[in-house]
Amino acid sequence: MSRMYGAFIQLTGRRCLVVGGGPVAERKITGLLDSEAEVTMIAPRATSSLVKMAENGTIRWEARPFQAGDTAPFFLIIAATASREVNAQVFAEGETHGRLVNVVNDPKLGNFTVPALLRRGSLTVGISTSGAAPVVAKKLREDLEAYWGPGIELFVEWVSEARRRIAAEVPEEAQRTELLRRLTNSELLQLLREGRQLEAEQLLKRIMGGRGG
Ligand SMILES: C[C@@]1(CC(=O)O)C2=NC(=C\c3[nH]c(c(CCC(=O)O)c3CC(=O)O)Cc3[nH]c(c(CC(=O)O)c3CCC(=O)O)/C=C3\N/C(=C\2)[C@@H](CCC(=O)O)[C@]3(C)CC(=O)O)/[C@H]1CCC(=O)O
Ligand SMILES: NC(=O)c1ccc[n+]([C@@H]2O[C@H](COP(=O)([O-])OP(=O)(O)OC[C@H]3O[C@@H](n4cnc5c(N)ncnc54)[C@H](O)[C@@H]3O)[C@@H](O)[C@H]2O)c1
Predict the structure, then answer these.
(1) Centre of ligand 1 from the C-alpha of residue 45, in Å
(2) SUPFAM superfamilies under this entry (predicted)?
(3) Do 97 and 171 belong together in one domain?
């Protein structure tokens, strides 16, 4: 399998189609909703949680098999049935329209794959094995989650806030870069990882030298 191009896609309000309603479709739909996509599912049968999501209007459900022409209105399509033939048909049609198409059960098909995602606030870490071993992507994601804990989210928030202040208060470019480098290379992240928040706050203040208070 060739090496994939990494990208993060803005899906807010975009119409996305998932063909299939099994456990794999459910995982993909949960991910799409987490990115605020507008999700339509086409499948004769669906898991009980997908049925609930359709009932309460979280997703739109067309309870029938896939038909030619179904992909046309969608920006992104996931072929998640257990049938290679149906998934291949979904891919062929989506590809004709130049759409983004993911196929869950045939590594030779599809033009994108879904990575394992570690999400903490504005931070997203995506892990791909280029289709070689998805279970490894999952394991690494779990390891990273356990290693960084909730501290990683505060770290990103603090550096982001510091970056805003530095941009407003430090006119000299080289000095701005140097300050940000000191922050990110400091013990700050390690202290937050270990839950030593008070010490982390003191270190932050020391490095920022009173800027922005
Ligand atoms: C990362 C993750 C994202 C997500 O789906 O959200 C994801 N698979 C996950 C889990 C997982 N998948 C499978 C198992 C069972 C163990 C096993 O068999 O290995 C488990 C583990 C579990 O479920 O616990 C089976 C499996 N997966 C694919 C095939 C077809 C094939 O390879 O032929 C088969 C065989 C099916 C069969 O037996 O027929 C294919 C794909 N799976 C991908 C993504 C893409 C490549 C990602 C990469 O490059 O690493 C790709 C190519 C297409 C795609 O789906 O985008 C998610 C972890 C999320 C998380 O927890 O963080
Ligand atoms: N990519 C991944 O992450 C991953 C992980 C595990 C398994 N898989 C593979 O993904 C596939 C799906 O797994 P699953 O457990 O969700 O399967 P499943 O059999 O539970 O669900 C299949 C779904 O497809 C629907 N369906 C069947 N024919 C259809 C048609 N013509 N049009 C529309 N919908 C149709 C069914 O109604 C059902 O909702 C399997 O081939 C499995 O091996 C992929």
Answers:
(1) 21
(2) NAD(P)-binding Rossmann-fold domains, Siroheme synthase middle domains-like
(3) no
